[in-house]
Amino acid sequence: MANDHFVKFENVDKSYDGKQLVVKGLDLDIAEGEFVTMLGPSGSGKTTCLMMLAGFETPTNGQIYLDNKVISDIPPHKRGIGMVFQNYALFPHMTVYENLAFPLRVRKIPKDEADKKVDKALSMVSLQGFESRMPMQLSGGQQQRVAVARSLVFDPQLVLMDEPLGALDKNLRESMQYEIKHIHESIGVTVVYVTHDQTEALTMSNRIAVFNDGKVQQLSSPDELYERPVNSFVAEFIGENNTFAGEIIDSSGDQCKVKLNSGTEILANPIVAKAKGEKTTVSLRPERAIIDPEKEMDNNHKGKIEEVIYHGDHTRLRLDILGNKEFILKVPNSSNRIDIKAGREINIGWNSVDCRALDPK
Amino acid sequence: MSQKQILSSDGIPLEESLKKAERKNKLKAVLLVAPLFLFILIIYVFPIGDMLFRSVDDRMITKMLPKTFNAMEKWDGKDLPDEEVYKGLYDDLTFLKKNKTYGKIIARLNYEKSGFSSLIKKTVRKINKFEEGNYKEQFIKVHKRWGKNEYLVALKNTAPNWSYAKYLKGMDRKFDQDRNIIQVEEDRRIHKILWLRTLNVAFWVTIFCFVLAYPISHLLATLPMKYSNLLMICVLLPFWTSLLVRTSSWMVLLQQQGPINDLIVWIGLAADDNRPELMYNVIGTFVAMTQILLPFMVLPLYSVMKTISPSLMRAGKSLGGTPLVSFVKIYFPLTIPGIGAGCLLVFILAIGYYITPALVGGASGSLISNTIAYHMKSSLDWAFASALGTMLLVGVLAIYWVYNKLVGIDNIKLG
Question: How far apart (Å, rounded) are the C-alpha atoms in residues B176 and B180?
Fold first, then answer.
């Protein structure tokens, strides 16, 4: 039976200098076999969490459990956690084979068995035949795969990846994302992945923990995170986002009325700010607003096109609407596209469900 | 030969127009390098060439006794030479006496065979009274050694313009009368001891430096910037202090009434009236040289360690290697280029070190460089000093060659 608390952070604090907390009272549960991504801007504490899990940093306070055992007192080499480092950390003086055999050799696994494991790990990343190469002779993508294979070769239950794709170019990064995702699916190992790239996080993860300011802001599945952000930081950080600042003037169940700073009143979905008189930031995804909606929508407003940016598969419009001059609208580039030009006035509408009243910024 | 010549667009062969285009740049490069090249030529190549030359140059005596050697060419060395040789000797010595330059040959000949000093002096004193003709008899009358074959053979042996006798002397060997190479008398074999001591000191100083420098360099490379800068200054401070001051401060510390001896007595390792000699012997040389050469080990090690990513050790540990295993299998092999550079540097510097052993080494702690200096300054046997210097140079080159074979010079990293 899968363990829902395979990795457990319990009220973990971390401070490096005794003055500032990098991680504040962190609680986090990761289930066995899950692919969890820690996502956040730099300095948000995500890498620190990973390092504490790997054993290279000690929590200032709180406990970390791995498979129901406290691991704070276990040194890194006894934790049995595979790790892929940011710059791969392949041993430059060893061949690919020796790199992969290192964790097996220190575990005193017999040579023929080790050879099999190395072969299996290399075939997993389609690098058979590269055994005798030195890391310097490999391309960035190949080095990355060796690093992944090395972290898996000794069959760890948990693999940590610290921004492993950061140094690769865009195309390679995308194909590696799928590759890592498929490896995870095929062997069912638990993966904790750290990145600051939200596309990467959305592509690969079962669940994403959004970090900011030493705290997990939201831990949920990618679609949940995008569709239903719980606060304005998450809404801003994941995907594109249009915001209006205002104050709730009326609230009834799943709908509320927000009076914007420009004076207009709109209908919104009360998520964080619910009570009358509360300040709020209303968040709306750019693709949720529609030009000249056919069906009746509960928010309908006029805006002026300030700028038109062609993006191939879609066109982005920057609008001046309800006092927000940075309002972005995405229009798919289909054959029957309406005539859009800068300076034109258009009518746009959106549903109050998509318009989330979050905490004020 | 059917290779087609590629022409550039104006019909000139491509190779030629490329040369033409690059000529100006090449000229500029040559002009930029020329001053340095000349400088190196003047301050490095010429002196070393001169040293090599001096160590084998033996023309002085040939120039001063030209007629004698001319006459000796026909002599086979078995019996006493003919009148002709003595006539030549008479002419040469008369000339030297007139110019008062015979002093030079006395030292040279006496080195070849002792006894020549008094022989020449006495002969020169009386040479004015010689009558013309029958010089052989008159020479033998002045000093009976002129009638002994061995002296005349020794004289003939100094005739060649070039000689490697100084090199033999440096190896405690010499020519006997019949030009065979033999060892010198047992109580005069001092150079072998000196060479071995020099190698021994250089070896151990290198080892001590390595043992001390490795942890320091590691600390330097891994500490946060503000601490490592301070530590770096501590390492470099000796560099900015005069060598003489550093050595003298060791003399203060190591002397018999000095603080280190006080400490040893206070701990109870030695009695107050039986304080150990820490200076004017090989211990002083070891201690002072290790301290002085330490930066030369620290700097290459540091620059190599600085490039080793800390994530490599972390990777080693996360893969299950204990800290010791990770160090031995990962960190240490990666520092070998720095170790090689540092050891080579320290060893080569140590093998030719002069001031420190001269000041704190005493008799039992002095090295080959001190002997070279002695022959340069005191005994004025420049040829011998040059020969020793050349042997040292060859030794260093040999070490370099062995090192290149073992480690590979490409694996050296100085920064």
Answer: 5
